[in-house]
Amino acid sequence: MLHYLGTRLLRATVSVVMVVTFVFIVLRMSGDPAVVIMGADAPPEAVDAFRTAWGLDQPIWVQYLSFFKAIFSGDLGQSMRDGRDAVAVVLERVPSTLALTVPAFLLNVGIGIPAGVYAALHRNTAIDRFVMVMAVTGFAMPSFILAMLLVLVFSVNLGWLPSAGQDSWLNAILPIVTMGFGGAALLARFTRSAMLEVLGQSYIRTASAKGLSWSAVVWRHALQNAAIPTVTIIGFMLGGLVAGAVVVESVFSWPGVGRLLVVSVSNRDLAVVQAIVLMIALTMVAANFVVDILYGLLDPKMQSQTRAARA
Amino acid sequence: MAFVQIRDMSVAFGSAPALRGISLSVERGEALGLVGESGCGKSITWLAALGLLPRSAKVGGSVLLDGVELIGASPSVLEPVRGGRIAMIFQDPASSLNPVHRIGHQIAEALALHRGLTGAPARAEVIRLLDQVGIPDAKTRANAYPHELSGGQNQRVMIAMALAGEPELLVADEPTTALDVTIQAQILDLLGTIRRDTGMGLVLISHDLGVVSETCSRIAVMYAGRIVEQAESAAIFANPSHPYTRGLLGAMPPISGPRQKLVSIPGSVPEASRMPQGCAFAPRCSEAIADCTRVDPAAVTVEANHLAACIRATPAKTGTRTPERVLA
């Protein structure tokens, strides 16, 4: 087990380092933060002083090394905008984002999985087709289009819900619905095909031939097997809990991490962008760990492999 | 009255007929072999009888179990029959067991359904059953998952699960096809032993006439969704009356005597959607005459308890010839 976790951890570390490195390089090659932050018409001495203050006058590999040294000592640098600790700037936005993504995630799972299972069990019926049309629509429509449609209907025409800001809980409804619908659509599609795959297996026929009622066959024999591939998709969604709202937060001017990321990238606020990217990478890695553990619980074959790896 | 009486059963998937009028009976405690090439409808016959085909299958005719109609019966009639009176085991034991449940649990499920056993008594019965089908160290193995066992052991588990409901008839659908030859013999021996001990009937579905003749007292040969010949095993070998049966026998290597070339049947089974007119076997038959492509022959009594559906089969002197069915 330790060996198994060890390799997973090593692999995860490599991916985090690669992501952070990539962002480090791209951000520095795509615009001079000193010019962006100080303004194009700032006096050259001021820009130079800014560069020296933030170490931007050093060669890029020196910056890179000191950046990694700082990460390992827990220091992700300060925001170039207001000099505050980058981690603090990011963390204060996390609750806002979670206020959207957690309910959206619950909608994804709470609607997507039952809809997918139901559609699979009633294959080729009108309800199945309805679910699939909704799923394809939700899957194919970019979230900002859906967001704007919702704003048009519920804010502009009906005037029921606010279209932007964070004044009350009412503001959260449209962004949550936007994200909830897309994710539920994706999950419904995957759950349906996973379920259809399982229902065609011989052991389902065996369970029926044993004399089990159809509902017992579905509950006891089909669902757990169908859950195994579905968990992968849920893992991706979990990984997006912190950062999954970039587009939607921007459309609805919701002051979360996603919006902070967009603003910080256009401002070339390096430390903040890097802190966010690192956090996203870490949540992805954590979500993958959760998926691995769930796999182990759902699929006995994984347990045997783990045992074999340990031996 | 026969234990199971199948009368004129037909099955179609869309417009493609899979079974074209099967009549077959199984007596209580009898061992019947059902032989034919893959796709001839051997398995479908029994899946249809137990209502295990997908809803898209159109099933016609009648299957009487002790006089109770099973075709079109409600789940409340079918569920106690499945596993309780007629149990089924399948070709590929590894995929026929649920990979996420322990084998003991899967057997216990049948015990709870058909004998109301739960908890410790169920557990004890699971171990007894595993022991009965020859799984060593049954106590530990009951906690194993299917992927931790070999194919032969999984088939033993399937048999144990089938026995759990104390069925009167076991339908074994190619139970040894996916197994090694040495294991095949063990599984067939096991089925024989169980039959001796319990008096359970057996329907052995196989493409292998040799396997069937060793185990069963009576054989029905199927071709393209129909039964072309049925008789006592000895009579099938001594007096094969349908050219297809003769073809199957010719394709079997003889155990003794000089080496001789095996004869294969030319051509292949017709597709269900493109059934030829007249006898389905006529295009492959070396003895076909002109009438064969016009008339779909009905079963003829060749001798006592021996039916063959061939236009050229000679009826017994005392036998009656049932009217021929002419396809328009």
Automatic annotation (TrEMBL), chain A:
<feature type="transmembrane region" description="Helical">
    <location>
        <begin position="12"/>
        <end position="31"/>
    </location>
</feature>
<keyword id="KW-0813">Transport</keyword>
<feature type="domain" description="ABC transmembrane type-1">
    <location>
        <begin position="94"/>
        <end position="291"/>
    </location>
</feature>
<dbReference type="InterPro" id="IPR035906">
    <property type="entry name" value="MetI-like_sf"/>
</dbReference>
<comment type="similarity">
    <text>Belongs to the binding-protein-dependent transport system permease family.</text>
</comment>
<protein>
    <submittedName>
        <fullName>ABC transporter permease</fullName>
    </submittedName>
</protein>
<dbReference type="InterPro" id="IPR000515">
    <property type="entry name" value="MetI-like"/>
</dbReference>
<keyword id="KW-0472">Membrane</keyword>
<feature type="transmembrane region" description="Helical">
    <location>
        <begin position="272"/>
        <end position="298"/>
    </location>
</feature>
<feature type="transmembrane region" description="Helical">
    <location>
        <begin position="133"/>
        <end position="156"/>
    </location>
</feature>
<dbReference type="Pfam" id="PF19300">
    <property type="entry name" value="BPD_transp_1_N"/>
</dbReference>
<dbReference type="Pfam" id="PF00528">
    <property type="entry name" value="BPD_transp_1"/>
</dbReference>
<feature type="transmembrane region" description="Helical">
    <location>
        <begin position="168"/>
        <end position="188"/>
    </location>
</feature>
<keyword id="KW-0812">Transmembrane</keyword>
<feature type="transmembrane region" description="Helical">
    <location>
        <begin position="230"/>
        <end position="252"/>
    </location>
</feature>
<dbReference type="GO" id="GO:0005886">
    <property type="term" value="C:plasma membrane"/>
</dbReference>
<dbReference type="InterPro" id="IPR045621">
    <property type="entry name" value="BPD_transp_1_N"/>
</dbReference>
<keyword id="KW-1003">Cell membrane</keyword>
<feature type="transmembrane region" description="Helical">
    <location>
        <begin position="98"/>
        <end position="121"/>
    </location>
</feature>
<dbReference type="GO" id="GO:0071916">
    <property type="term" value="F:dipeptide transmembrane transporter activity"/>
</dbReference>
<keyword id="KW-1133">Transmembrane helix</keyword>
From TrEMBL, chain B:
<keyword id="KW-0813">Transport</keyword>
<protein>
    <submittedName>
        <fullName>Oligopeptide transporter ATP-binding component</fullName>
    </submittedName>
</protein>
<feature type="domain" description="ABC transporter">
    <location>
        <begin position="4"/>
        <end position="249"/>
    </location>
</feature>
<dbReference type="Pfam" id="PF08352">
    <property type="entry name" value="oligo_HPY"/>
</dbReference>
<dbReference type="GO" id="GO:0005886">
    <property type="term" value="C:plasma membrane"/>
</dbReference>
<dbReference type="InterPro" id="IPR050388">
    <property type="entry name" value="ABC_Ni/Peptide_Import"/>
</dbReference>
<dbReference type="InterPro" id="IPR027417">
    <property type="entry name" value="P-loop_NTPase"/>
</dbReference>
<dbReference type="Pfam" id="PF00005">
    <property type="entry name" value="ABC_tran"/>
</dbReference>
<keyword id="KW-1003">Cell membrane</keyword>
<keyword id="KW-0547">Nucleotide-binding</keyword>
<dbReference type="InterPro" id="IPR003439">
    <property type="entry name" value="ABC_transporter-like_ATP-bd"/>
</dbReference>
<keyword id="KW-0472">Membrane</keyword>
<dbReference type="InterPro" id="IPR003593">
    <property type="entry name" value="AAA+_ATPase"/>
</dbReference>
<dbReference type="GO" id="GO:0016887">
    <property type="term" value="F:ATP hydrolysis activity"/>
</dbReference>
<dbReference type="GO" id="GO:0005524">
    <property type="term" value="F:ATP binding"/>
</dbReference>
<dbReference type="InterPro" id="IPR013563">
    <property type="entry name" value="Oligopep_ABC_C"/>
</dbReference>
<dbReference type="GO" id="GO:0015833">
    <property type="term" value="P:peptide transport"/>
</dbReference>
<dbReference type="GO" id="GO:0055085">
    <property type="term" value="P:transmembrane transport"/>
</dbReference>
<keyword id="KW-0067">ATP-binding</keyword>
<comment type="similarity">
    <text>Belongs to the ABC transporter superfamily.</text>
</comment>
